[in-house]
Design goal:
CATH architecture of the largest domain: Orthogonal Bundle
Order of helices and strands: HHHHHHHHHH
Radius of gyration: 19 Å
Helix content: over 70%
Number of strands: 0
Strand content: under 5%
Structural class: mainly alpha
Number of helices: 10
Shape: globular
Number of domains: 2
Largest sheet: none
CATH topology of the largest domain: Globin-like
CATH class of the largest domain: Mainly Alpha
Length: about 240
């Protein structure tokens, strides 16, 4: 990080330390409005989320104070490995950083843009170096959009006529792909299969047939194959889930 003097950075860091914890708590509260979180991780998970939010602030403030982006980016990469082992995915952490960056930017304090930039860099640091999971991450938005369009074409009655439900469909697909990329990166099929089993139960409780998920994953598999993704970029795992092998 270049530009401001260390003395100036200390002043900014002190002000961030004073104001950002409340923003981080608000971000966690907003995220937990999605029933996925409490059902997937329970009350204990909410406690962990609040604790993690505090850590985000601690490392962010230290990165600003020291003028070293690596403090935050290394933390992000380390925390990703911890969260993935808990049943989360890379996109969950990236989404948290995005929300926190947006909340800080909304404070309209010019000096806080240092922290916003650091959070954006931390998001970028979550891109895998290994080719297979990296390919999934880089193609995720294109694949999710294309798959959502196909699902909507074949099953137009799944959601109401408004676009809200279909935006949720695309968002769900992005999470499917993030779990898939993490499973490929860690060489752990259980990270994806366990997530799929949870989603099946989650949908059943809400009266949504699991056939909806099966059809969506089948279309995602077809899009991934058509995109010419590397052979080890999750396609065999997707097929195994669909066939139950």
């Amino acid at each position: 990080m270049s530009g401001p003097r260390l003395a100036d950075l200390t002043t900014v860091a002190d002000e961030l330390q004073r104001r950002v914890p409340a923003l981080s708590r608000r971000v966690i509260e907003d995220m937990y409005r999605n029933p996925f979180w409490i059902e997937r991780f329970g009350v204990r998970g909410r406690g962990n989320a609040d604790q993690d939010g505090g850590y985000h602030v601690t490392y962010l403030v230290e990165a600003v104070r020291s003028g070293s982006p690596s403090v935050m980016t290394r933390y992000a990469q380390w925390l990703r490995s911890v969260l993935v082992s808990r049943g989360m995915c890379t996109r969950h952490l990236s989404d948290n950083f995005t929300r926190l960056a947006d909340a800080i930017a909304a404070e309209e304090e010019p000096t806080f843009m240092i922290a916003v930039d650091l959070l954006r860099q931390s998001e970028a640091a979550l891109l895998y170096e290994a080719p297979a999971p990296r390919a999934l991450q880089l193609q995720a938005l294109t694949l999710a959009r294309a798959t959502a369009v196909s699902v909507r074409g074949d099953y137009p009655d799944w959601y109401e006529e408004s676009d809200t439900g279909w935006r949720h469909c695309q968002d769900d697909l992005l999470y499917h792909l993030s779990y898939l990329a993490d499973a490929v990166a860690a060489s752990r099929t259980d990270l994806f299969t366990g997530y799929v089993r949870f989603v099946e139960g989650f949908l059943q409780k809400r009266g949504v047939p699991t056939s909806h998920l099966d059809a969506t994953l089948a279309m995602l598999s077809a899009k991934l194959e058509a995109a010419g993704a590397p052979a080890d970029a999750g396609l065999p795992l997707l097929r195994a889930v669909l066939t139950g092998t």
